[in-house]
Design a protein that fits this description.
The protein has helices at residues 52-62, 95-100, 109-127, 180-183, 191-206, 217-226, 238-247, 258-269, and strands spanning 17-25, 29-36, 39-46, 73-77, 84-88, 134-135, 144-147, 152-155, 162-163, 232-233, 319-320, 325-326, 328-329, 350-352, 365-368, 371-373. It is α+β, with helices and mostly antiparallel strands. It folds into 2 domains: 2-88, Phosphorylase Kinase, domain 1, CATH 3.30.200; 95-342, Transferase(Phosphotransferase), domain 1, CATH 1.10.510. The strands form 6 sheets. A 5-stranded antiparallel sheet has the order 1-2-3-5-4, with helices on one face. Strands 14-16-15 form a 3-stranded antiparallel sheet. A two-stranded antiparallel ribbon has the order 6-9. The longest helix has 19 residues, at 109-127. Belongs to the protein kinase superfamily. STE Ser/Thr protein kinase family. MAP kinase kinase kinase subfamily.
Length: 385
């Protein structure tokens, strides 16, 4: 099986690997923390010969990438029964663990925005690759790893990555983050990753698992197919909310490119401070339950044909139009970084984006190409906590 290794992938002798502990399960096998050549590594073993294709896929794609927000491949072993990938070890674990596993560490809005921006940077790199752009297809917090005390994010699990030119009809990925065109069996593009990213952005801000009240993957897919989305969060800054809503649009053509997402996020992240502070020094109180305690109506958060203007006659914080009601959580969920955000976020936010990006109204009005007014008060504020 050595012949399957792409050029430039180091063939690793299994005897050089000193196993330490089982870390978890990947898309096709067990992940082990180990030592190799005096450094800690993650070793992903293939456990079923039927999963050989996923192994070859991951080796092939990881051998093509080199980006600070994508996990690094050191090499591979292809001698049965020790078929494995040897990769960079992420000592901070997965983003999913930080968000949802108890005890839950406190993190700032700056961390949430930074994680989302770094994820977008890595995905934009994949989409812009030559000669064959790539689509990840399985973006979700369990596949986003953290290093450097939780401040640096790395994308992993490339067993489902595909070349952009490939026709894709398989229902790969995870239902809560999956774009509707994927599970519908339609031809889809890199915009499916943009949809997944929008759900991730909601998740790091709300600190809630999307659609966690729905029991089955099929039920989630049906609701998403009908247009349901996670509930919008009261007091979420409008530029963030509207970017999120654009990304999870039902129509892929209405979603921004990941390059545009990166440009917008670079501007927004300048408004927050503290992204380089270590995660884990402070833990949320055990009595803070992570639940927004609400049911989704069948037509909640319909993403198409919606005028995202707040109904000024309503005290419930909903957003209305002729066809649907977009549900809004009455306050930030317990554990959300928005609970500790400075009130300065109620002040105006100006977002600078690159001139080549399409004008986007992130709030009240577009001023001119490259500069956008997000809210309507006078701007004289320092970066937000």
């Amino acid at each position: 099986m050595n012949s399957v290794l792409p050029p430039f992938v180091t063939a690793i002798d299994i005897d050089e690997i000193e196993q330490i502990a089982t870390v978890g399960k990947g898309s096709f096998g067990t992940v082990i923390k180990a030592k190799w050549r005096n450094k800690y590594v993650a070793v992903k073993y293939i456990e079923d010969i039927s999963e050989q294709h996923a192994f070859i896929t991951e080796v092939s794609h990881l051998s093509r990438v080199a980006h600070p927000n994508i996990i690094e491949l050191y090499g591979a072993c292809t001698e049965m029964p020790h078929v494995c990938l040897v990769m960079e070890y992420a000592d901070g674990g997965s983003l999913h663990k930080v968000l949802h596993s108890r005890p839950r560490p406190v993190y700032k809005a700056a961390h949430a925005m930074s994680w989302a921006r770094q994820c977008a940077e890595g995905v934009a790199y994949l989409h812009d690759m030559t000669p064959r752009p790539m689509i990840h297809r399985d973006l979700k917090p369990p596949n986003l790893l953290l290093v450097n005390n939780g401040t640096v994010l790395k994308i992993c699990d490339f067993g489902t990555v595909t070349d952009k030119a490939t026709l894709m009809t398989n229902n790969k990925g995870s239902a809560a983050w999956m774009a509707p065109e994927v599970f519908e069996g339609s031809t889809y593009t890199e915009k499916c990753d943009v949809f997944s990213w929008g759900i991730i952005l909601w998740e790091v801000i709300a600190r809630e698992q999307p659609f966690k009240h729905i029991d089955t993957s099929f039920a989630i897919m049906w609701r998403v197919h009908q247009g349901s989305r996670p509930p919008l969060i009261e007091n979420c800054p409008k530029p963030i909310e509207q970017l999120m809503v654009r990304c999870w649009s039902q129509n892929p053509a209405n979603r921004p490119s990941m390059k545009e997402v990166v440009s917008i996020m670079n501007g927004l992240c300048k408004l927050f401070v503290g992204e380089n502070e270590p995660i884990g020094d402070e833990i949320l109180s055990d009595d803070e339950e992570d639940s927004y305690g609400m049911d989704y109506p069948a037509d909640s958060n319909m993403s198409e044909g919606t005028n995202y203007g707040t109904d000024s006659n309503s005290s419930r914080g909903t957003i209305t139009n002729r066809n649907s009601t977009i549900q809004r959580i009455s306050e930030a969920p317990k554990g959300s970084p928005l609970r500790n955000m400075s009130s300065a976020m109620l002040q105006p936010i100006f977002v600078e984006v690159n001139p080549y990006d399409q004008p986007v109204d992130l709030g009240s009005s577009a001023l001119h190409t490259g500069t956008f007014l997000a809210v309507t008060h006078h701007l004289k504020q320092r970066p937000m906590q």
